[in-house]
Specification:
The complex is a heterodimer of chains A (232) and B (390).
Chain A: E1 8-19, E2 22-34, E3 39-43, H1 50-57, E4 65-70, E5 73-74, H2 80-90, E6 91-94, H3 106-117, H4 121-134, H5 150-163, E7 168-172, H6 180-195, E8 199-204, H7 207-210, E9 215-220, E10 223-229
Parallel strand pairs in A: 3-8, 3-9, 6-7, 7-8
Antiparallel strand pairs in A: 1-2, 1-4, 4-5, 9-10
Helix pairs in contact in A: 3-4, 3-5, 4-5, 5-6
Chain B: H1 2-16, H2 18-55, E1 60-65, H3 76-81, E2 88-103, E3 106-115, H4 119-122, E4 127-130, H5 135-139, E5 144-147, H6 149-156, E6 165-168, E7 171-179, E8 184-185, E9 188-189, E10 193-197, H7 198-204, E11 212-217, H8 223-237, E12 245-249, H9 250-293, H10 295-303, H11 308-344, H12 353-380, H13 383-388
Parallel strand pairs in B: 3-10, 5-7
Antiparallel strand pairs in B: 1-11, 1-12, 2-3, 2-6, 2-11, 4-7, 5-10, 6-7, 8-9
Classes of the chains: A alpha/beta (232), B alpha+beta (390).
């Protein structure tokens, strides 16, 4: 786990789905690496395989073929429980539709990953509070998601992703459900997090949003067609 | 720690839909409370019957003569001869009938029993004032009578009946003793009857002979042996004709009754157990619905690091808490019903605490068994499929 090794190394990743008896290859041999502290946008039209790639990078699924090393660990060989642990410790998810639990308050939502990590109540509260302060929601800790605006809900989700201090933040269309202005605010927050040293992978179909990242990986029909650095 | 967390999550989710949770528990509540109430009532009734059988005396045999052909009864002497049988302690032959008893303007229909003085010890039935019947009363066919406490009250009110006369079917009998109050037994009320000497009764009731004989044995242990000897002797007398007599053995009766009531208790518990099972299926049903509804929640939890065991525990605990809570309410309700039945009706109720414990534990067990399938379904969901669900 030396910092010299890349945070993410994908080699010849291939994945197929069988739908109605017909096999479709979604990922056709992708290879790339992502270093610590990068801000990468993965862009592609719908159906390009970028969502599948996100599932693979987020350890929600395991590719049929190819290697995936995350923080020096080979993901292919891991059990479901081990994958759950990796998701818990290494990855902070930020989803398009926030994916907060509606019956829990903001702070309880933020605490959730820490429960599964086995922290004590006191430790969890502390970390969750700090996390909510970072996204500027210290006033709304005890509100339920339904009592918050979309932007606020996404900030709670970001706080949840940050709470466990994972090395990677994986954001899937984080502004997709927000209006332009709130979307910009959320993006700004993500950029700030990157400046503070978090590695960020942003999945989007929107080039304008992708332009905010430092590096753009373009996927089309399951192939990597472009990998360039943004001149900022 | 994890268990405590899962418990808290389960409680939260149960409390967030109170009506549904209550309806889910209802099956278990009804099941557990009916097990407890039915078994309590069943056992209470059993002990009531057992008690009244025991009060008859465990060393008692009652012979009823139904007769066959010409001989439909035994003579008084033949009946007394049964006392010669080995092991027999006392013999009390009885001739019975109904008469109209009259005192002044009061009259009542009452059962009359012609007895011998041995009745007092054999039936363990004594006078509270006056004297019991004596051998001399039998010998001289005296028109003397003992009167039951209820009948005495009907005819004499608060007056002391001892020494007074009473008209039985128009004939005057002198009351020499007032019987103690004994309440009812299986044979009916003991306090509404008149006892007269057996020899007097033979003529007075125009009854050909003795049809009922109560026999006591030297000890309770030899009742079965004595019964066999008694039957042998009676068989000889009635030429081995079927159904010419029957011997009622209170011990045997006791066994039959307790066997029957055990079977009944088991059947009641079985029926109640079935309703518990149905309650369990109700829980499974709701848990499956709940798992399906919360597919997204499961996906989110898995995405942020919940392991299979975490999800399994969460749903299992939810189902066990539901059934356990239902069980607890059921225990309370069952105990209340038992208490109410015992308090407001004449039925005897005996709460069986083992049954209370068993039915509560069974309700927890049902939560585990019927929660297993839905919880396992939740735990096995793949996070990408669960998250895709909108």
């Amino acid at each position: 786990m030396s910092s010299a090794a890349p945070l993410i190394r994908v080699e010849n990743m291939i994945h197929r789905y069988t739908m109605a008896g017909e096999s479709m290859t979604i990922l056709k041999g992708l290879s790339f690496t992502i270093e610590h502290g990068e801000f990468v946008a993965i862009i592609g039209p719908s159906g390009s395989g970028k969502s599948t790639l996100m599932n693979m990078l987020g350890c929600l699924d395991v590719a049929n073929e190819g290697d995936y090393f995350l923080d020096g660990q080979e993901i292919r060989k891991l059990s479901d429980n081990k994958l759950a642990q990796i998701r818990n410790e290494k990855i902070g998810f930020i989803f398009q539709n926030f994916n907060l639990l509606p019956k829990l308050s903001a702070i309880e939502n933020v605490e959730l990953p820490l429960i599964y990590r086995g922290l004590t109540h006191k430790e969890r509260r502390e970390a969750a509070r700090n996390s909510l302060i970072r996204v500027g929601l210290e006033e709304r800790m005890d509100h339920r998601p339904s009592e918050l605006s979309g932007g606020q809900q996404q900030r709670v989700a970001i706080a949840r992703a940050l709470a466990g201090t994972p090395p990677i933040l994986l954001a899937d269309e984080p502004t997709g459900a927000l209006d332009t202005k709130t979307g910009q605010e959320v993006l700004q927050m993500i950029r700030e997090l990157n400046q503070q040293g978090h590695t960020i992978i942003l999945i989007t179909h929107d080039l304008e949003i992708a332009q905010q990242a430092k590096r753009i990986i373009r996927i089309q029909d399951g192939n990597l067609v472009e990998d360039r650095r943004n001149a900022l | 720690m994890m268990l405590f967390q899962s418990m808290k999550m389960a409680m939260k989710s149960i409390l967030s839909s109170k009506i549904r949770s209550f309806l889910t528990m209802l099956g278990i509540i009804i099941g557990v409370s009916s097990v407890i109430a039915l078994v309590s009532i069943g056992q209470g009734t059993t002990s009531q019957i057992t008690e009244s059988l025991n009060s008859l005396g465990t060393n008692q045999l009652t012979v009823n003569i139904t007769g066959r052909g010409a001989t439909t009864s035994l003579t008084y002497e033949e009946a007394l001869a049964l006392g010669e049988i080995e092991g027999v302690d006392g013999v009390s032959p009885v001739i019975s009938g109904n008469v109209t008893a009259k005192k002044g303007t009061e009259n009542t229909t009452v059962s009359v029993e012609g007895i011998t003085p041995s009745y007092e010890t054999v039936q363990d039935f004594h006078v509270q004032s006056g004297r019991f019947l004596l051998d001399i009363d039998t010998e001289y066919r005296q028109k003397v009578a003992l009167i039951g406490s209820d009948t005495a009250e009907t005819l004499f009110g608060t007056e002391d009946p001892v020494g007074q006369n009473v008209q039985l079917n128009g004939r005057s009998f002198k009351i020499v003793g007032l019987l103690e109050s004994k309440g009812s037994s299986l044979g009916g009320s003991n306090d509404e009857k008149i006892l007269i000497p057996i020899s007097t009764a033979e003529r007075f009731l125009q009854s050909k002979g003795v049809r009922s004989i109560t026999v006591t044995t030297d000890s309770a242990d030899i009742v079965t042996d004595v019964k066999a000897r008694l039957e042998a002797s009676l068989d000889k007398k009635f030429n081995y004709a079927d159904n010419s007599y029957s011997v009622f053995d209170s011990q045997e009766m006791l066994e039959t009754v307790s066997e029957t009531s055990d079977t009944l208790s088991m059947a009641l518990a079985g029926i109640a157990g079935i309703s518990l099972l149905v309650g369990g299926i109700g829980i499974m049903n709701i848990m499956i619905v709940s798992v399906n509804e919360r597919t997204r929640e499961i996906g989110i939890r898995k995405a942020i690091g919940a392991k299979k065991l975490n999800i399994l525990l969460q749903f299992m605990i939810e189902s066990v808490v539901l059934s356990g809570f239902g069980g607890l309410i059921g225990v309370g309700l069952g105990l209340f019903i038992s208490w109410a039945v015992g308090h407001y009706s004449t039925m005897n109720v005996a709460t069986d605490w083992n049954m209370v414990a068993i039915s509560f534990i069974f309700s927890l067990f049902i939560g585990v068994v019927f929660g297993m399938m839905p919880a396992n379904k939740a735990a096995r969901m793949r996070p990408i499929n669960a998250l895709r669900n909108d």
